[in-house]
From TrEMBL:
This is Uncharacterized protein. Residues 1-18 form the signal peptide. It comes from Chromera velia CCMP2878. Keywords: Signal. Residues 205-236 are annotated as: Disordered. It comes from the Eukaryota.
Length: 925
């Protein structure tokens, strides 16, 4: 049997060989002699030359390291401030926390040497500044001098292809599945995937339910490209054996052919392995207007000169030019830094900080931030303007609109402008050397109206998928004005722009929505949800509905084939394809190729720095950082902080301080547990077997250690490595949530502590080797649990932990009980299992389960012969054996007070109740 290491293995190999996800170069200042009295300056610059810092993901998030000097750079924020803002937002039941964090996010980028001593700090004031090191750093050093340093960061040049050839993975562009038992089948014109050959009949129909094929339906006629309906009205799914002609706006680099007439394949040299099918006459050519606008908005000459750092700086310094919403803006960071500088120099001694190594002393970083801002509170929260002097006007003339580039008439209509913007401008397009001929009937291409009908039946916008040409639009408008037109002809010309008035038209065309009306189109901004900036300087096509209520910046090819809802900023710097609904409620940054074929909900910061494939669904409700190739083959729900980082660190790096047993009262003994009955997870287990086999074989490939075991031990690295340390696959129905660590040697299992932070694939390895065992059920974490789970926290932190525990024990019991039951019930369902309600009732009411089983048998006997008419479900659960059930026992269930119980006791119990597990009528006393 032949296995494909695939793109993940290749990309993982790059990580194993030392390639960094992002490299940053720190340049020395021109006046280096000014800092001769600062020893820390020479730690940053051992030689008077630029220093390279490579991203090396560490336990505390992003970490950049200079391999030669061993100086590290990491960001830490004021955690108390974040928690306070989040709490206020929760109490108010709104999402204002996003805007508050963007406008007032205090923290620091901290340089530390190999011993963990602080070398210098750059203070940050905005969430945008925490994403990556700033382009200009104001580094405050222990010698009380501030050096202004330039730092240039460049992301890794990822290949946009992520077709790994595994079961259920995409094969749209290459048409290749490496496993012999797999075939590439075209599900829709825009999506093909690898499926078992045995699942299809000889006539290319699917043996199972078509709904399992990601959007395919037995009632959907997908047309020539996606299969045709046969005599039994079952859809066919064409077998693909290599690159084929692609549909409009898709990547045609591998085939060089387009599937719809009038479209042609043009290459763009800005990205490797990328070309796009577009109308032959719309290939964008250079125009001076683009350069002027790029200079005005972003301060660069070409879109390719734009870097993530430059964009962040521009958003912070000139938010008005970029269209950044006023309600999201804070005060200019330069003004904050100017006020804070003097106060920090007076009140903070960076050099006197305790050891603050990134791997195991993160609390010192947080203390440093908090100490500075606590002493400089007045200066920090003074938002008055500084040194603002109004300049006198020489001439009283208003010239603000003289250079308004939107008002320059180039003779283009709104559709020309729209297509030009969606192509990302002219940079990189080779319009004179197409990769293939223009598609026509001679090449077997679909007619435009047929393609529109197919797109409409797929749920896409037909006029976005195949827009009208300028000629056909003009012809249609002229024919509408012909007074002698019959009603049928008038209807045809209204809905079908490609056919002439006298031509026979496709009857399905009449079911299409009308073409968009001619309107003015803003080249630089789309207003879909208020005054929200939308900047696309790369090929960006939306073929489905999109509601955008937050800034969206696209700097790499992006295609959206499903509904998207954006309520928080999204940044795209690498090719992204979305084939399923996506909801964005928190900042999302994409820095590496991303393919989503399953629904995704992002409700917490998500940063993707390495290739990621979502084949099922993903729901992100806690921070997630991806630094190595990551594939979701199933459905993953993230409810706890997840860091996908190389599994190269020794176990002592993650060692936690033992603070003794937690004193928090949790009330989680009577929670929902999974039933033994078969449910979704059991049915899906065989589906993921193949992927698990491939994942295991690839992951077990040994890798040579570049250092001796002795050196590796000193710097905190593992003694031996495999390829599995550099990629991670979430296979099946996974829930990442806080769980108990349990003692595997004791029966019953004894809870030890709460695991809050996850580090994959390390945690998977520990579970496989039985070095760490976690509870089956999720638990509600408290702030004291978070502190206990931080690596290498000093023992003095026990006082803070005890203070938290005292406060946590003041939380009312009903709140804790409800939280535990809601969490366990929902997470069991997310794992594809069935909650055991009967066992839960037995635990809550302290009833013997055998009695409940006997009760079930009696009910089953009573049900026989009753037919479908009766609501009488046999002897009611509480009427038969537990008719003397004391209502006061509700305290065991919800911890309710006597006032509520007195009210409930007045409610009579029905003789026969359809509410099987609820003994009271739904009425008020």
């Amino acid at each position: 049997m032949r296995f494909l290491l695939g793109a993940f293995a290749l990309l993982a190999g790059r990580h194993a060989s030392g390639d960094s996800v992002m490299d940053c170069v720190l340049h020395p200042p021109e006046d280096a002699k000014e800092y001769e009295s600062c020893p820390s300056f020479y730690k940053l610059f051992p030689k008077n030359e630029s220093q390279k810092f490579s991203m090396s993901p560490g336990p505390n998030g992003q970490y950049y390291e200079n391999k030669s000097s061993r100086v590290g750079l990491s960001h830490f924020e004021d955690e108390e401030r974040v928690q306070a803002v989040m709490s206020e937002s929760v109490k108010a039941q709104d999402n204002t926390y996003i805007a508050k964090l963007f406008s007032d996010m205090s923290g620091m980028w901290l340089f530390s040497d190999e011993n963990g001593d602080a070398v210098g700090a750059h203070y940050t004031f905005d969430l945008l500044e925490a994403n990556l090191p700033p382009e200009e750093m104001h580094v405050l050093m222990p010698c009380k001098k501030t050096a202004v340093l330039k730092m240039e960061c460049k992301p890794f040049d990822w290949l946009p292809l992520l077709e790994v050839g595994w079961k259920d993975s995409a094969c749209t562009w290459t048409g290749v599945c490496e496993e012999e038992a797999m075939e590439c089948r075209k599900i829709t014109p825009y999506f093909s995937k690898c499926l078992p050959a045995e699942d299809f009949n000889e006539d290319d129909t699917f043996k199972g339910k078509p709904q399992s094929l990601n959007g395919a339906s037995s009632e959907t006629e997908t047309g020539k490209e996606g299969g045709e309906k046969n005599s039994t009205s079952k859809a066919t799914y064409k077998k693909v054996t290599g690159p084929e002609a692609v549909w409009p706006w898709d990547n045609c680099y591998f085939s060089g052919q387009c599937a719809v007439e009038g479209y042609q394949c043009f290459k763009n040299t800005r990205w490797p392995l990328f070309a796009q099918c577009m109308p032959a006459e719309s290939c964008p050519r250079p125009r001076g207007k683009d350069t002027l606008k790029l200079q005005e908005v972003w301060g660069v000459d070409k879109a390719s000169d734009m870097t993530p750092q430059k964009m962040v700086r521009r958003l912070l310094e000139h938010p008005d030019k970029t269209g950044y919403p006023a309600e999201w803006r804070g005060e200019n960071g330069a003004l904050k830094r100017r006020r804070l500088k003097e106060c920090a120099e007076k009140n903070s001694e960076v050099g006197s900080l305790a050891s603050a190594n990134f791997a195991y002393k993160a609390e010192d970083h947080v203390k440093a931030v908090q100490s500075v801002f606590s002493k400089c509170g007045d200066e920090y929260f003074d938002f008055a303007k500084v040194d603002e002097v109004e300049q006198p006007k020489v001439l009283d003339l208003d010239l603000s609109d003289v250079l308004d580039l939107d008002k320059i008439d180039l003779g283009w209509d709104w559709m020309d402008e729209k297509l030009y913007e969606e192509a990302g401008g002219s940079e990189g397009w080779d319009c004179d050397n197409p990769l293939g001929p223009e598609a026509s009937s001679d090449t077997g291409a679909l007619k435009r109206d047929e393609a529109r009908v197919t797109a409409w039946k797929m749920g896409l916008d037909p006029w976005e998928t195949v827009p009208e040409t300028k000629t056909s639009r003009r012809r249609r408008l002229q024919q509408i004005e012909v007074a002698s037109s019959t009603f049928k002809g008038l209807q045809a010309t209204q809905y079908q722009g490609e056919d002439t008035y006298f031509a026979e038209s496709n009857p399905d065309v009449y079911d299409l929505p009308p073409p968009p009306k001619e309107k003015e189109y803003s080249y630089f901004k789309k207003k879909m949800c208020g005054d929200v900036p939308y900047h696309s300087w790369a090929p960006d096509k939306n073929l489905a509905f999109k509601l955008m209520c937050a800034p969206l910046y696209t700097w790499a090819p992006n295609i959206l084939l499903a509904p998207g809802f954006y309520f928080a900023p999204k940044f795209t710097w690498a090719p992204a394809i979305t084939l399923a609904p996506e909801t964005i409620l928190a900042p999302k940054g994409v820095w590496a190729p991303l393919i989503q074929t399953g629904p995704t909900v992002v409700a917490a910061p998500l940063w993707v720095f390495a290739p990621k494939i979502v084949l099922g669904g993903q729901f992100v409700f806690a921070p997630e950082n991806v630094f190595i190739p990551f594939m979701v083959a199933g459905v993953e729900t993230v409810l706890a902080p997840l860091n996908v980082i190389p599994d190269i660190f020794a176990d002592w790096v993650f060692k936690r301080t033992d603070f003794g047993e937690s004193k928090v009262k949790r009330f989680d003994d009577k929670i929902f547990k999974a039933s033994d009955k078969k449910f979704i997870a059991d049915k899906l287990d065989p589906v993921f077997t193949f992927i698990e086999e491939v994942d295991s074989k690839v992951g077990d490939v040994p890798l040579p250690l570049p250092l001796s075991e002795e050196k590796a031990k000193k710097i905190g690295l593992r003694k031996s490595l495999t390829l599995g340390a550099f990629f991670y696959s979430a296979i099946g129905l996974k829930v990442v949530c806080p769980r108990y660590r349990v003692d595997k040697d004791k029966k019953p299992l004894e809870p030890l502590s709460v695991k809050v932070f996850y580090y994959e694939p390390r945690d998977t390895r520990l579970k496989k080797d039985e070095e760490e065992k976690l509870s089956d059920q999720c638990v509600v974490p408290y702030p004291s649990d978070v502190l206990r789970d931080l690596p290498h926290l000093p023992k003095e932190a026990i006082y803070a932990i005890k203070a938290f525990e005292i406060a946590e024990n003041l939380i009312p019991k009903p709140v804790k009980v409800a939280a535990n039951q809601i969490l366990t019930f929902s997470t069991i369902l997310a794992e594809g299992k069935l909650p055991d309600v009967q066992k839960w009732l037995a635990d809550v009411l302290e009833i013997d389960e055998k009695d409940l089983e006997k009760e079930d048998k009696e009910k089953d006997e009573d049900l026989k012969g009753m037919g479908a008419s009766g609501l009488g479900w046999g002897p009611a659960l509480y009427q038969s054996q537990h008719s003397k059930f004391p209502l006061g026992d509700l305290e065991k269930l919800f911890g309710t007070n006597s006032t509520i119980l007195d009210m409930v006791k007045k409610v009579e119990m029905p003789s026969i109740s359809p509410w099987e597990y609820w003994p009271f009528k739904k009425e008020t006393p």
